[in-house]
Amino acid sequence: MSVQHVPGDLPIVGLTGSGACAQPALVSEPLDGAAAAGLAQVFKALGDPVRLRLVSLIGAHAGGEVCVCDLTSAFDLSQPTISHHLKVLRAAGLIDSERRGTWVYYRLVPAALERMAGLLSVPVA
Amino acid sequence: MSVQHVPGDLPIVGLTGSGACAQPALVSEPLDGAAAAGLAQVFKALGDPVRLRLVSLIGAHAGGEVCVCDLTSAFDLSQPTISHHLKVLRAAGLIDSERRGTWVYYRLVPAALERMAGLLSVPVA
DNA sequence: GCGCTGTATCGATAGCTGCCTATGAAGAGC
DNA sequence: GCTCTTCATAGGCAGCTATCGATACAGCGC
Q1: What domains sit in chain B, N to C, each tagged with a CATH number?
Q2: Rounded CA–C1' distance between B98 and C8, in angstroms
């Protein structure tokens, strides 16, 4: 579940809608405007040093889950700022969160990362 | 050559410096601040619908090269705006350009794309 | 030389984004 | 109930960015 949010609360992009359809590698065929806008949001989410480090921290953490308090303490930024960045990453579909008791844990969405990786892969041709 | 720019004119990132060193997959180990900043610039370059479509158009074009005039005519944007986006992509190391006579041709830098794809690939673990 | 065409740069402006402080909401423990 | 802790949201402000028109630069043809 997605914690305290009404489902559909945020403009979640990423895997919604397209299902398991294999992505056609960005450079294989011209992108239409709508697809470009959706994909750009995900790349934009990754286009910030803090968010990139957040993804890295979450992914590298044993167990695959990290408490927000651990993420906040890893940066010289205020807690609301970290919370904001986590929100952007979650809206992009790159991470997911779950509340357990007092704490909220974040983990990666591997499928979303793989999808973007596949987009950037250049066909042998 | 890089056309009309003095080499080092722009803050080119991407493959400069790191050589052929295999990138350690973002989620394998926590990213330090400097590396995050460099990678974020590349993702940020991809985090715009117009630039994403530009990359797609260049990559999907037969011959691997596209004249600026063709790119400009593919969008409902002014020529300076397209030129600006191409400059951002080139500064990120994602594309390269070459002038031949009156026209300037742009092509992808596959190694840069592959590098980012590798970063996003999640290890099996 | 002169003009014409294709690109890049300049300068300005509207909109977005990252950061903060202050505040609100949700649980746990009393 | 109240209080404390953890996290999210709201509001505001400074800096960046996407866009434009105007202009400069680079080749080609004359």
Answers
A1: 33-120 (1.10.10.10)
A2: 14
